[in-house]
Amino acid sequence: MKDKLVIFDTTLRDGEQSPGASMNREEKVRIAKALERLRVDVIEAGFPAASPGDFEAVQAIAATIEESGVCGLARALDSDIDRAGEALKAAKRPRIHTFIATSPIHMQHKLRMNAEQVVERAVAAVTRARKYTDDVEFSPEDAGRSEEDFLCRIIEAVIAAGATTINIPDTVGYSLPHEFGALIGRLRERISNSDKAVFSVHCHNDLGLAVANSLSAVLSGARQVECTINGLGERAGNAALEEVVMALRTRQDAFPCEVTVNAREIVPCSKLVSSITGFPVQPNKAIVGANAFAHESGIHQDGVLKSRETYEIMRAEDVGWSANRMVLGKHSGRNAFRTRMRELGVEFESEEMLNEVFARFKQLADKKHEIFDEDLQALISEQIFEAEAERVRLISLHVCADTGEIPRAHVVLKVDGVEKTGDAEGSGVVDATFKAIEAQLKTGTTLLLYSVNNITSGTDSQGEVTVRLEKGGRVVNGQGADTDIVIASAKAYVNAVNKLLSPVRRKHPQAADV
Ligand code: KIV
Ligand code: ZN
Predict the structure, then answer these.
(1) Is the CB of 202 under 6 A from ligand 1?
(2) How far apart are CA 136 and CA 395, in angstroms?
(3) Which residues neighbour 379 within 8 Å (Cβ) at sequence distance 6 or greater?
(4) CB distance 441 to 456 below 8 Å
(5) 112 in the same domain as 218
(6) Element (H, E) at 102
């Protein structure tokens, strides 16, 4: 019997720390359900002390998820731990993850605390967390740059205080695989009570080594890996869940442990996270990129046709490619629609909401013959945006783009219930549309990113547009989908503006205000 490797997903916590990736409660619950279908062992649902919205999101996930454990992050502060304990009350398998920085650079410059005080705070935090649950994880933040003797001391103390998982983060992505693996091996050997806890790793990808570092740690005895869908996360992101899982699966000969993830849900989950966060997946991304299983060269195609193993080490269908292709069409009825939505983890709160989304589905099916799962997910996202308290709403858009003429746009918006119109010219119709919206709203934002992806293939596919706006240091992503990419662009811009207008103030868990 091989050991089990615990897959701890932190898409909803560290992943959400990517600039612009913030999600609302409904979006988080949808992703949590997708993670549960993927059968991840633990879902880190958020940082409840960050804001009332974050608290409510963790609470909603705790109440919804049945199979996976649900975890809340807390700094080593009584107030954070109490918030996390409270948010997780309804969880079937609650876990509190508490952390404090242990590297000289963080202790001196960020915390302004000495080693003694840090150990004291860590032990107190774990002891308090144990009042809420038996499942307590402790992380010495910036472990990759911490002194080993100090790591041994603090880890021994928190295990004695009741920590059941010890997570070693390479917070700044500085470690190399051979040294990080060796560090995990030495910590397990040197710490007298190390057998009382599961050792975990949490690697950042600043040098592109997050997955390599995580796998090296597994070879040295780590039995939990923290990762995110599509490698989302702070700065260059975290270890990508799909890469860790498929490396373990594909190279069972090399690893002494196994994962129980349902790999067929990897691609659907990746697409959902990409569409909700507005972070596109690069085509050559391992496992989940559009080209990950595409063979371009004639020699490769010929080889694969003769025998798949010539150029393929995994089967596309085993990670969820081509599963759930064409699902519905314009003749599909309400029941088929509701059933497929249920299979995608979407339950309608009322018949009225079902009817509204079904009506949109029919409109889309009139424009586009085949409706795929990705189209259904986009319909739901749109419904959620509109159900939120939106201050700005797109009523209509008219664009003009004759050859040799200057492109023009005319938009009608409803702003706080009042109808406004705007006209503008631009270098193209999208540019003109954004200028026409800006002429009315005068938000003074900077456009950081504009990207268009087709949700499925074909010219009748819906275009999914992401618009990233920045104002006063705050970055938001807006999304919009439509078979017409200019309309999708306008929807995305308006969605981003609505997010900027909402007065959300959140604490960052790793900020200096401990
Ligand atoms: O990167 C990090 O150190 C973290 C901790 C909070 C575990 O995200
Ligand atoms: Zn992190």
Answers:
(1) yes
(2) 50
(3) 357, 360, 361, 364
(4) no
(5) yes
(6) none
Q: Is 205 in the pocket of ligand 1 (CB under 6 A)?
A: no
CA of 63 to the centre of ligand 1 (A): 25
Answer whether 46's CB lies under 8 Å from 72's CB.
yes
Say what the pTM is: 0.88
- Here the CATH number for the domain that contains residue 467 is 3.30.160.270
- Residue 300 belongs to a domain: no
Query: How many C-beta atoms lie closer than 10 Å to residue 183's C-beta?
Result: 23
Position 217 in a domain: yes
- Ligand 1 atom index nearest CA of 204: 1
Instruction: Decide if 36 contacts 260 (C-beta within 8 A).
Output: no
Mean pLDDT on 322-329: 64
CA of 7 to the centre of ligand 2 (A): 15
At residue 324 the predicted structure's pLDDT band, cuts being 50, 70 and 90, is very low
The token pair that represents 143 in the structure block: 């472990």
Q: Is the CB of 139 under 6 A from ligand 1?
A: yes
CB-ligand 1 contact for 169 (6 Å cutoff): yes
Span from the CA of 172 to the centroid of ligand 1 (angstroms) = 9
Give the model confidence (pLDDT) of 336-354 as tens digits: 888 888 877 787 878 888 8
Closest ligand to C-alpha of residue 167 is 1
Structurally, the chain folds into a number of domains equal to 3
Residue 360 lies in a domain: yes
- Report the residue among 136, 137, 202 best suited for mutation to probe ligand 1: largest number of ligand atoms under 8 A from its CB: 202
Predicted confidence band of residue 75 (pLDDT cuts 50, 70, 90)? very high
